[in-house]
């Protein structure tokens, strides 16, 4: 079992400009960590094995939070599966090979709930990983992420380093991408309904049938979970991080409509892919460590929408 981290250890957050990485940096600073190390992708392309090794040798972090990845929704995964596979494999291997060579004692790898088999029993327990076929719409991404989880457990076995993996559910919050080409369902809906209000549109059409069930976790809750795991978890199995509660995409669309003040009609386009029919995590492992989600969906949607509107005003000014 790990112990609490000293606030003066160097912690490298890979992917600090992203949704997860930025939330982790905010939390670490709030908790008094004084040596948070970061580098943007312009400063350090993590696909570059040698450059990444040099960066880690210079900064000698004692903790690595691996939240850098090529990430996207169904459309982006469908359009560029080879890039999702190649970029994620290379980012993971660059960081993990360099961290192994330096015997960096703690590393947390971010997997994802979308790498579990498509038709696994619900709620999803960590033990079902690799027990069946994957969801085809993001298979390349999932295979890369499964390689990352396997790399973590292999390093534990071969080198005795107590590295760990987390499996977050769908995340949202400040710092999310609202770009229509690459955003996930929740920010895509916020943007769509916001535009409908602004354009006074009578109908909003949502991709798919509206029937798939999904779970959403605020990214600030995930950041708390990452710190809990780094301080209190040391085991081979990845750990699910979610709310343990799901809702239909139709119900989510109604909540989003209420958040942005849309009063028109919500339609569905069943010609668009639905993805996995249901996805909700069994979060008993992380609950047993004392972590629980704190931010409810309605509250999280309100603050995320406020952040989105604020970010848009900055762009317009
Ligand atoms: N978002 C979710 O719903 C979700 C759910 C489950 C798991 N996760 C996992 O959480 C992790 C982070 O996801 P996220 O949503 O925070 O993604 P994100 O917002 O797209 O951020 C990705 C981060 O990775 C960096 N990055 C990408 N390619 C890079 C490269 N070649 N070199 C250096 N940096 C690079 C990006 O830097 P630039 O901005 O400079 O490009 C950015 O900081 C991923 O492993 C993902 O699988 C996310």
How would you describe this structure to a colleague?
The chain has 317 residues and is of the alpha/beta class. The protein has a domain at 11-175 and 215-245 and 279-296: NAD(P)-binding Rossmann-like Domain (Rossmann fold, 3-Layer(aba) Sandwich). It contains ten helices and twelve strands. It has helices spanning 19-30, 49-59, 74-79, 81-101, 139-159, 185-199, 219-232, 249-260, 284-288, 297-316; strands at residues 11-14, 36-37, 63-66, 106-110, 164-168, 170-172, 203-207, 213-214, 216-218, 239-241, 247-248, 265-269. Strand 4 (106-110), helix 5 (139-159) and strand 5 (164-168) form a beta-alpha-beta unit. Helix 8 (249-260) packs across helix 10. The protein is globular, with a radius of gyration of 19 Å. The mean pLDDT is 95. NADP nicotinamide-adenine-dinucleotide phosphate binds next to helix 1 and strand 6.
């Amino acid at each position: 079992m790990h112990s609490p981290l000293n606030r003066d250890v160097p912690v490298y957050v890979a992917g600090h400009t992203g949704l997860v990485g930025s939330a982790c940096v905010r939390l670490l600073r709030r908790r008094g960590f004084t040596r948070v190390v970061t580098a943007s992708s312009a400063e350090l392309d993590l696909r570059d094995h040698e450059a990444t090794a040099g960066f880690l040798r210079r900064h000698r972090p004692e903790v690595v939070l691996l939240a850098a990845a090529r990430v996207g929704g169904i459309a982006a995964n469908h359009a560029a599966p080879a890039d999702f596979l190649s970029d994620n494999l290379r980012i993971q291997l660059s960081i993990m090979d360099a961290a192994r060579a330096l015997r960096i004692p703690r590393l947390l790898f971010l997997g994802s709930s979308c790498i579990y088999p498509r038709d696994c029993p619900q709620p999803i327990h960590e033990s079902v990983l690799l027990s069946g076929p994957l969801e085809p719409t993001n298979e390349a991404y999932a295979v890369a992420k499964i390689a990352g989880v396997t790399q973590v457990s292999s390093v534990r076995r071969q080198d005795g380093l107590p590295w760990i993996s987390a499996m977050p559910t769908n995340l949202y919050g400040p710092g999310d991408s609202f770009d229509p080409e690459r955003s996930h369902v929740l920010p895509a809906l916020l943007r769509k309904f916001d535009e409908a209000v602004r354009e006074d549109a009578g109908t909003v059409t949502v991709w798919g049938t509206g029937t798939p069930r999904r779970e959403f976790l605020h990214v600030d809750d995930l950041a708390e979970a990452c710190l809990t795991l780094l301080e209190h978890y040391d085991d081979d199995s990845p750990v699910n991080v979610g709310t343990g509660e799901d809702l239909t995409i139709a119900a989510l669309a109604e909540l989003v409509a209420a958040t942005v003040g849309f009063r028109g009609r919500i339609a569905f386009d069943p010609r668009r892919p639905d993805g996995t029919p249901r996805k909700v995590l069994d979060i008993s492992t992380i609950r047993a460590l004392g972590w629980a989600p704190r931010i409810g969906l309605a509250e999280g949607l309100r603050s995320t929408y406020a952040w989105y509107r604020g970010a848009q005003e900055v762009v317009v000014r």
